Amino acid sequence: MSHPNLLKYSIALALIALLPACNDSNKSTSTTTATEQTAPTGKNDVVIANGAEPESLDPQKASDGASFVIARQLFLGLVDIDDNGKTVPSMASEWNNENNKVWTFKLRDANWSDGTPITAHDFVYSLRRLTDPKTASPYGSYLVDGKVLNADAIAEGKLAPDTLGVVALDDKTLQITLSEPVPYFVDLLALPAVFAVPQKTVERFGDQWTDPANIVVSGAYKLTDWGVNSHVTLERNPAFYDNANTSIEKVTFLPITGVAEINRFKAGEVDLTSGVEPEQYQALKAELGEQVQSSPLLCTTYLDINTKKAPFDNVDVRRALNLSFDRPLFTDKVLATGQKPTYQLTPASTAGMGDVTPDWATQDMATRSKDAVSLLTKAGYSKDNPLPIQFVYTSGDTGKKIVSAATAMWNENLEGLIKIEPVNYEWKMVLENRRQGNFDIALAGWCADYNEPSTFLNTLKSKNSNNGAFYKNPDYDKTLDATLQVASSDERTKLYHDAERILQADSPVIPLYTPSGNYLIKPYLKGVSKDDPTRSYNIRHWQIAQ
Questions:
Q1: Which of 211, 223, 275, 337 lies at a CB distance of 3.0 to 4.6 Å from 281, suitable for a disulfide?
Q2: Which of 443, 442, 435 is nearest to 467 (CA)?
Q3: How far apart, in whole angstroms, are the C-alpha atoms of residue 72 and residue 223?
Q4: Homologous superfamily in CATH for domain 79-203
């Protein structure tokens, strides 16, 4: 899920969302009273601080976590993710495959909110729409990486969208053909970008089809109100196939984070927050006890470097910045709430990954700084001619803290050879400026679309639509392509490690840390999973204790 997924974290830091790390040593001895365990009388709605204004509620036009959190409530995909992060049936009641290359899905009986049946043709339309260059989807290359037949040629404008390897064998049978086997292909289908959208509604209303007055949905909830930069309100969809087992009547998402969401949580106006600011964690744990929770999430916070823009097209410049960033100091002293420093894009906890720490990470900071200064000097920079850097980030206390700390760290470790200009934008403007390449360095983040290393590593392939660093390296692309040619998971892991080492040498991104997932939740809100590392929750499974 922010593509460039600047803080794809759908629930925190404008999407550093509900991340990992529970530290038992920080547990409070405070207790929660009985009255706090139950909701106000008659309450059957939930208010969620969603971290940011959603980029779009059109599944094929969105790329950020704030959008995808809402889209999961509005629309259905072929598959879903359960409370443990595993792929489970959704609109597809069952599926099979031939040699991981031809995948066939049987659809359940279900209707759109206007009463018309949901069919395999809806998925054909939506997957073609995603890949069609005219859609300009941030995830336009998603099916290319999934090796869906002809997706690459369609994305490049060489073939028409109707040549995509997706066909409806009948109203309830969808078949997807790949150009080569992808053993984890079904897991890719849990991302909202590949969910079905209503063709007639999209074609009738164009870009306004997601307006509350026009929208037609398939999920448990329907959009009833959208106040830009204010709120998004959903109410139960009576046409949903499993409406009888949906409990919560109304959901409101607020585009707030930081102090604002915490204050409104304390005031009883928010039931679930996007996160907890690092400097507030200890105090909130002492004050609110078990209302401060933690849960795992597969995410990495990193810096994108604009490799298509001089002088950042110079690998020496990028390596100097990478070498001179002191991760342990940053996580232990600046953030200090359980974040783990990292030197790789893919979290080590991702299935089939493991640790890929470079040798230089074990050197002391003085040695690394000396090497970095030498690289910048070689590139032509000095105290009299410092390297100018435009550092783009989004609003929020954590973003400011990161940029401020990074600036101070680099100024010291690089001995005044750089001059940083912090540039703060509202969330949507950050996304737009990054896509247009209007930055030198940008604070970014990525959370797994599925639990497999390719969800991180594919984002830096040359033709990937989420390639925020504009990175191009044929050897890197070939390495990732080779992961689909090997027979064993061990061989695939070795290639993923090779890919990470290429990134470490080229430094198109600077991995900083895997975030800690602290958030606030009212004790009466039940059913929110703490075990799904993708944080792909469905509010229809939640309940409010009375």
A1: 337
A2: 435
A3: 12
A4: Dipeptide-binding Protein; Domain 1 (3.90.76.10)
252: tokens are 């409101």
The pLDDT of residue 413 is above 80: yes
Q: Band the pLDDT of 480: cuts 50, 70, 90.
A: very high
Phi, psi (degrees; rounded to nearest 5) at 88? -135, 165
Our CA dihedral for 238, 244, 248, 249, rounded to 10 degrees, sits at 30
- Give the DSSP H/E element, type plus range, for residue 188: helix 185-188
Helix (H) or strand (E) holding 433: helix 427-435
In whole angstroms, what is the distance from residue 499 CA to residue 35 CA? 53
What is the value of pTM for the model shown? 0.84
Distance from chain centroid for Cα 472:
22
DSSP secondary structure letter of residue 331: I
Predicted local confidence at residue 278, as pLDDT? 67
Task: State how far the Cα of 211 lies from the Cα of 364, in Å rounded to an integer.
Answer: 55
Instruction: Please tell me the CATH superfamily of domain 24-74+219-295+517-544, with its number.
Output: Periplasmic binding protein-like II (3.40.190.10)
Phi, psi of 269 (to 5 degrees): -95, -10
Decide if 97 contacts 147 (C-beta within 8 A): no
List the domain boundaries for the chain: 24-74+219-295+517-544, 79-203, 299-514
Structure tokens at 181: 């086997």
Nearest to 394 by CA among 11, 136, 10, 51: 51
Name the class of domain 299-514. alpha beta
* Chain length of the chain: 546
d(CA 247, CA 38): 16
pLDDT above 90 as % of the chain: 77
Q: What is the enclosing helix (H) or strand (E) of 390? A: strand 387-394
The residues facing 444 across adjacent strands are: 302
Instruction: Give 304's strand partners.
Output: 442, 509
**Long-range contacts of range 235-241, CB-CB < 8 Å, 24 or more positions apart?**
237/113, 239/111, 239/112, 239/113, 239/114, 239/115, 240/110, 240/113, 240/540, 241/108, 241/109, 241/110, 241/111
